[in-house]
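Methods, example record. To illustrate the input and output format used throughout this study, we show the complete record for MerR family transcriptional regulator. The sequence lines were provided to the predictor; the line carrying structure tokens was produced by it.
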Amino acid sequence: MSTMTMRETESRTGLPAPTLRYYEEIGLIGPIAREEHSGHRRYSEADLDALQALACLRGMGVGIEDMRTYQANRALGAVAAGEQRDLLTRHARRIEAEIERLTVHVRYLAEKAALWDARDRGDARAEATAKQRVEEILPALEGSLR
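The corresponding predicted structure is encoded as:
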């Protein structure tokens, strides 16, 4: 069975060594096998698979407790499929809400940039139009900042 060093695992998962150690320490993965003489960690393909899933979840803003639940559900397989679906759906909805909020922010910034661009060019009509668009966005912006 082929195993990987920590450095190789870092490269394959994008997770830095301190995170790999932390995930093992708190029980998200492992225990990780060690080389007999040096004590260095050696990651298996199964470890890599689990770490790649955790790296994806981490990148999507999923917290440690939900990562624990995800890992436990993976181990349970079909028995926990409904709970796994619900966990992932909840995070998908959270990300959709964040996208909506950020879309409002992008619209606001674009319109403010257009307003300042019009001022820079001395185009009073374009400035007035941009100012109106900014004012139209303000209610949604204020709601997104709460």
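Annotations derived from this record:
Helices lie at 6-13, 17-25, 45-59, 64-76, 81-121, 124-144.
The beta strands are 33-34, 41-42.
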